[in-house]
Amino acid sequence: TEMDTLGAPMLVELLTLFEDTAAATLAQMAAARQAGDGVALEKLAHRLHSAAANLGLVRVMSGTRELEQAAGAVGTDNGHLADLLARLQATTVQSCEVLRQHVLARSQPG
User: Fold this and answer.
1) Fewest beta carbons less than 10 Å away: which of 23, 40, 55, 105?
2) Does residue 6 surpass a pLDDT of 80?
């Protein structure tokens, strides 16, 4: 597994980097949604999807895929995009917390 190969400290470092990047990307996504820029929102969702894939954050990947598809669809309601984005933000935070707890628990001796 990645934990065996990289070790817990490196995984925690990668997760922290992802969290920082995700927070910035989610803020940019919110701004794009507010501006009605579906193209930018779609690209940002794709970027976050790729970053989440590197850590195996499947729920984040699913949420980004759903948002990416909705942002690229003609006539998608802005309120629907806001709901998807809010769910993605919550999922991202929760997934990162779960992964961090898992990595730290597995790194404890005994």
Assistant:
1) 105
2) no
Checking if the pLDDT of 4 tops 70, the result is no
Find the farthest-apart pair of alpha carbons in the chain and give their distance in angstroms, rounded.
55
Cβ-in-10-Å burial (0-12, 13-18, 19+) of 62 comes to middle
**Helix/strand/coil (H/E/C) assignment for every residue in the chain:** CHHHHHCHHHHHHHHHHHHHHHHHHHHHHHHHHHHCCHHHHHHHHHHHHHHHHHHCCHHHHHHHHHHHHHHHCCCCCHHHHHHHHHHHHHHHHHHHHHHHHHHHHHHCCC
Whether 51 contacts 24, CB under 8 Å: no
pLDDT at 50 exceeding the cut of 70: yes
